[in-house]
Amino acid sequence: MNHPTREELIEFAYDELDADRKATVGSHVESCAECKALLESWQDVRRQLQAADVRMPNPHRTLTGAGFLRGVAAALLLIGLGYGLARMTVPSESRLRGQVVSELQTQFRDELRAELAKFTIDQSTREQEYQQQTARLISQLEIRQVADYSGLRKDVETVAMRTQEEFDRLAVADSVEAKGTQSNH
Amino acid sequence: MKWLARVIAPGSISDEQAMEDVRADGSPASFALLVKRWELPIRRLCLRMTGDAHRAEDLAQETFARVFASRQGFEGDRKFSTWIWRIAINLCLEEGRRRRLAEKFQLQIATSSRDDQSDRQLGPDDKASASERSSMVHTALAALPQAQRAVVVLREFEGLKFREVAQILEIPESTAKSRMADALVELGRLLSPLRDETGTPVPRNSESQMQRIVI
């Protein structure tokens, strides 16, 4: 007899075959070492999986805890549909939801406002600082200019004085020379 | 008077009826009922998919948020269970993809400074304790491709038929079956160091396990 397909074998392992095919595959597996080994290795893995499966905490303690619903509400807010939950009007649970939603909204609004205020303050402080810096620069520039001008003036004065002195000296020299020429004649 | 029936005998209405109410007018009573009925199964599914209680909790909450947010997309003639399983498993797969990407990136960096001492291996005489064995199983499950893991979780742990598994994952039934077979073979390989054909024993350390996969 032909081997069952892999699909059939997996269906056999999970007992999903109808009675006829189950009997056919079953009798084949009994007589075919290859298929039997494969099936057994699968059953072995399945046993290990079952033994290692997660243990859930006690359902009565955790079932529909307020924390879980709060998480659902928060997740809804994140995808922008808090409005739907806030509308809900069933006794305790929905009051809680409404509370949570409005609390979160208030918190969010406050945080946003605080952030905006901080931003505005930051902005105006920065502007002030900028203005102060500019003013400081301008005054420094002015001082520098005055210093430059006065320096320049001093230099010009010095040059002027030196020139005057030179003229004077030349004039004296000229007159001495003139006298000398006169006396030689 | 529909709501009266919900309050008096909540057990008498089906998930589909409850979801239909949620879809029609956002009925909080019906939504609360669905959360009550499905919270634990969904959390368990997310835990089996992620192997991490905190991530499972977040994903379960997000699942219910998605159920509510996309309530208009629920078709009354479909099974509610298939719909919510699909939402949950897709969220898990999405999160898993992001995580694997991040892990791969981190491991590539870490591989250069790999510490071979951490590579303790299971020898023939090594008898793993029950908890060690269990953590080996979890490591092996985590090492499976996500698509295979989803089938294992739904068929092996949730006990759904292959037909339902295929519907939830939106794949052909034959694909679901062959993924299950692939997963069992791969898990068998990862969990039986002695019978490993390649001769490489399965490292006990989960980090080096991941490195093997990345490399």
Instruction: Please state roughly what percent of the residues of chain A sit in beta strands, choosing from under 5%, 5-15%, 15-25%, 25-35%, 35-45% or over 45%.
Output: under 5%
Helical content of chain A (DSSP H or I, runs of 4+):
over 70%
Using the CA coordinates, give the radius of gyration of chain A.
Answer: 51 Å
Q: In DSSP terms, counting alpha (H) and pi (I) runs of 4 or more, how many helices of chain A? A: 7
Average pLDDT level of chain B: 80
> What's the SSE pattern of chain A?
HHHHHHH
Oligomeric status of the shown chains? heterodimer
What is the strand tally of chain A? Answer: 0
What's the N-to-C terminus distance of chain A?
159 Å
> Low-confidence segments of chain B, ≥5 residues, pLDDT <50?
114-125, 194-215
Contiguous helical run count of chain B: 10
Apparent shape of chain B: globular
| Rg over C-alpha atoms of chain B, rounded to the nearest angstrom | 21 Å
| Global outline of chain A | elongated
Number of DSSP-assigned strands of chain B = 0
Please mark out the parts of chain A with pLDDT under 50 across 5 or more consecutive residues, or reply none. Answer: 59-63, 82-91
The biggest sheet of chain A amounts to:
none
Main pleated sheet of chain B: none
